[in-house]
Amino acid sequence: MRGCFAALLLGWSALVAAADVPQLRLQPLPPGHAELELCFPDFGAPLRFELEVDASGPAGTSSSQQRGELPAGQPACPLHNRLSGAPGTRIDAILRWWVGDAEPQAMSTSLDL
User: Fold this and answer.
1) How far is the CA of 18 from the CAs of 34, 40, 68, 79, 96, in angstroms?
2) Average pLDDT over the chain, rounded to whole?
3) pLDDT attached to residue 22
4) Fewest beta carbons within 10 Å, which of 41, 45, 102, 109?
């Protein structure tokens, strides 16, 4: 029984820890499309972010950057975009973010259409 309680506690700790980081999701949609979403929990302090999205494929390459600031006190999802590309296009998203002066490790995700 003690082992079950320890496993449950570890699982709960991992869930709580996962809630304390931004969520950067890049998901496939019907052929040639993808959905990009960025959400932040409330860190108790204002935060800044920079998101770079690069796409490379048969039609060429493109790059976009988005920056923003969010106040403390509430979770927020500042980005929810639908992307398009030819089959064979690769999409890379890189997130850098700061809470105060602290810059946690950058996050990235990729998707091949």
Assistant:
1) 24, 11, 22, 19, 17
2) 85
3) 94
4) 102
